[in-house]
Write a structure and sequence with these properties.
The chain is built from 7 helices and 20 strands. By secondary structure, the chain is α+β, with helices and mostly antiparallel strands. The protein folds into 2 domains: 3-166, Aminotransferase class 4, branched-chain amino acid transferase, N-terminal domain (D-amino Acid Aminotransferase, Chain A, domain 1, 2-Layer Sandwich), CATH 3.30.470; 174-338, D-amino Acid Aminotransferase, Chain A, domain 2 (Alpha-Beta Barrel). Helix 5 crosses helix 7. The chain is globular. The two termini are 17 Å apart. Bound molecules: pyridoxal-5'-phosphate. The site of pyridoxal-5'-phosphate has 13 residues, from strand 13 and helix 5. Pyridoxal-5'-phosphate binds next to strand 13 and helix 5. Keywords: Amino-acid biosynthesis, Aminotransferase, Branched-chain amino acid biosynthesis, Pyridoxal phosphate, Transferase. InterPro entries: Aminotrans_IV (IPR001544), Aminotrans_IV_CS (IPR018300), Aminotransferase-like (IPR036038), B_amino_transII (IPR005786), BCAT-like_C (IPR043132), BCAT-like_N (IPR043131), BCAT_family (IPR033939). One of its GO terms (biological process) is L-valine biosynthetic process. This is Branched-chain-amino-acid aminotransferase.
């Protein structure tokens, strides 16, 4: 199958002129079209691109009762020649199907995911604005649409892609609290999958953290709460002296595309990177002796999210304010590759 095998029903009008691209709230505005591809009893049907609109679904669909739902988060960028680019989309495609396998859902063919995405982006090209900071956030997802409240995997699924214009935002000062009780993921669980349920599991402890004045939680390993694992829904890096540390990916840690790209870029810059677990005790020690310089989250939405301080056992530790933090240097370098402002020597960017 190629993109000619996609049925296209164009919207009669576009809502693009009613959108204020300067004041976008992340994830609230969607483009004119969406892609839908249904899976019925072992067969993927022909994908359809059609106007963005709500759809009907049986109240007994398994997604509502047993949480068979997975997603991806990617971005499209426009360069100065009006060409649209994706960043390492193969990684998102592979990860999506790993998530599908873990949730006993069917794998999506590359022709549906990739050709479908490219075709949709060609149609929605005007929604990708030029200029650093502007991007089109891409949300591929799959839900179990098969009806019946029997607790077993469904026979019917729906894969979709929706698109939302985004502007880089300043998230304000991010203070975090280190998890001592709650967990995001456990050994043998679904923490390494981009599953909807991993997010709902975080909402309540994150709400408690918000009420205490912290924006995010740094998750620790569920068994001992001694190893630092992720920051909210991002991977996390620690800079102690001039070395960057980040935990190895595992069953509990999502294999982030930003994380691995930052590791490769930092190494090429000659920055010392160690992929190993950092212990809470080490972090406290480093904060106390002044060797802890930076903590930052890494993920597609913000690239890096610098953290200004953290709390552990009711004590707050503030990080130094640096002139030229590594987090922002790496963010700038990665953005330059994504927006085609610097040569992509890694071969990460893919033209739509
Ligand atoms: C999506 C996600 C990340 C970041 O992954 P990217 O591919 O860099 O966007 C990190 N941790 C969790 C839990 C995630 O869901």
């Amino acid at each position: 199958m190629n993109e000619n095998d996609i049925t296209v029903n164009l919207a009669s009008t576009s809502k693009i002129d009613s959108v204020d691209f300067e004041n976008l709230i992340f994830g609230t505005v969607f483009t004119d079209h969406m892609l839908i591809c249904d899976y019925k009893q072992g067969v993927w049907e022909k994908p359809v691109i059609k106007p963005y609109e709500p759809f009907l679904i049986d109240p007994s669909a398994k997604v509502f009762h047993y949480g068979q739902a997975i997603f991806e988060g990617m971005k499209a960028y426009k360069d100065e020649h009006d060409d649209v680019w994706l960043f390492r989309p193969d990684q998102n495609f592979e990860r999506f199907n790993k998530s599908a396998v873990r949730l006993a859902m069917p794998e999506v063919p590359e022709s549906v995911f990739m050709d479908g995405l490219k075709k949709l982006l060609q149609i929605e090209k005007a929604w990708v604005k030029t200029g650093k900071g502007n991007s089109l956030y891409i949300r591929p997802f799959m839900i179990a649409t098969g009806p019946g409240v029997v607790a077993a995997p469904a026979n019917f699924y729906r894969f979709m892609i929706i698109l939302s214009p985004a502007k880089s935002y300043y998230s304000g000062e991010v203070k975090v609290i280190i998890a001592e009780h709650y967990s995001r993921a456990a050994n043998g669980g679904i923490g390494a999958a981009k599953a909807a349920g991993n997010y709902s599991a975080q909402f309540y402890p994150t709400k408690l953290a918000n009420e205490m004045g912290y924006q995010q939680i740094i998750w620790t390993d569920d068994a001992t709460h001694t190893k630092l694992e992720e920051a909210g829904t991002m991977n996390v890096f620690f800079r102690i002296n001039d070395t960057l540390y980040t935990a190895p990916t595992s069953e509990r840690i999502l294999d982030g595309v930003t994380r691995k790209s930052l590791i490769d870029m930092a190494k090429r810059e000659g920055i010392n990177v160690e992929v190993r677990s950092v212990l809470v005790d080490e972090l406290i020690q480093a904060a106390e002796d002044g060797s802890l310089k930076e903590i930052f989250g890494a993920g597609t939405a913000a690239v890096v999210n610098p953290i200004v301080g953290f709390s552990y056992k009711e004590k707050y530790y503030e990080l130094p304010k640096l002139e030229n933090p590594i987090a922002l240097q790496l963010k700038e370098k990665l953005n330059n590759i994504q927006y085609k402002l610097a040569e992509d020597t890694f071969g990460w960017t893919v033209k739509v």
